[in-house]
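Entry 14. Ran structure prediction on the chain below.
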Amino acid sequence: MTQDESTSGPMQAPRDIPVDWEALEDAFENNAPEVHSYLHLATGDVLRVVDGVADPQMHARISIDPAYLRVEPVSSREQYRWMERFIPMVEDEELQKKLTQAIDGKGAFRRFKDVLMSYAADRERWFTFRSERLRIFMEAWLAAHALNPIQRVAWPADAKPEESSEPAAVETREQRRGRNAESLRKTLREIAESLGPRDLDNLVAFAEFIRARRVARSFTHHAAGGDAQGDDDSPASQEVPTAAREASGGDAE
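Output, structure tokens:
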């Protein structure tokens, strides 16, 4: 019996799961061939395994473990269609032309996002539009596997969840969120002090990109209703390499 057959089927009753929506959205968006994401069917956490980083034997164990379900990301072709559908919704004719030219040829995802960096309002509308499309895919995928998303339990500030038995090479979303935010801010300040005016402009633009993405996701999740919402932590809590790859369009190419 395959993993899919053991976790879904027409006769199976829906199974409640406290889905981490933000982490699941990242997994659905990231279709890089070296990245493999798994949903833990008990905790709702998403584990990300990267080829060349994680132990191949550990990866093999997770892939056949019935406690985990492999996340099937949205294809690059489908995400490209989202850009095509969004462009006619843009009211600025000049921006429409720029976006149409941007998606022509290799590197379309990166150029599309680069163009939107100069149009804050339309950039936020794009994030909202894309999040809505991802949400549709996620809900359909969960339903196909007889999974019923429920609200996640918020851990008190002085409480710690039980330690995972998984090796440290596989990092859960909750573990990533536990990193010291103040230490990261200090590091960012030190980096900023060493940069020149042009690099500072790029740093500020990227920070605005992250903030706009959070606003778009928060808006989409609240608009969809509060029963199945996850924690609303900032995307800045993600690993820096992942965030940088998303800003350049690497996830969907």
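Residues 1-9, 163-180, 218-253 have pLDDT under 50 and may be disordered. Will compare against last week's run tomorrow.
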